[in-house]
Model the fold of this input.
Amino acid sequence: MTYPCPEPVASLWFPLVKKFYQAHYPSGKPNKAEPIWVIRQQGKILCAVRLKPFPENQLLTAMVTAPEQRQQGLGTHLLQGIQQQLTQTPTYCFAFTHLVAFYERNQFTEILPEELPDTLQERFLTYRRQGRKITPMRYKSS
Done:
């Protein structure tokens, strides 16, 4: 199946993105001030991701695909479509452990927590203390 190209969320349809996250990833909490990219088809959001900016890097976070659309390559299509945004500044993610292989297939490399920038390290350690099973990763531009 061919999917549309990822597109940045316009403020006009931010309520739709918020509703998508509430339905499929409640802890995702989209923020109007942060870049959010989605794949839409016939007005329906199929997949979304946030790029949380920091002064010298960014955190790819809250990547979610609608359950009925999973295992069809949408996440890969989304990441490939925003490659330019991922290479503009160092990009990191805290991958759920069961998704590490997915991110590795999409040009992320597992790193040690100590390798995270200071701006992200404390956040990562806080999430770990909360019991989240996450792995720090960095995007490697080709």
The domain at 7-139 is CATH 3.40.630.30 (Aminopeptidase). The mean pLDDT is 94. The longest helix spans residues 118-129.
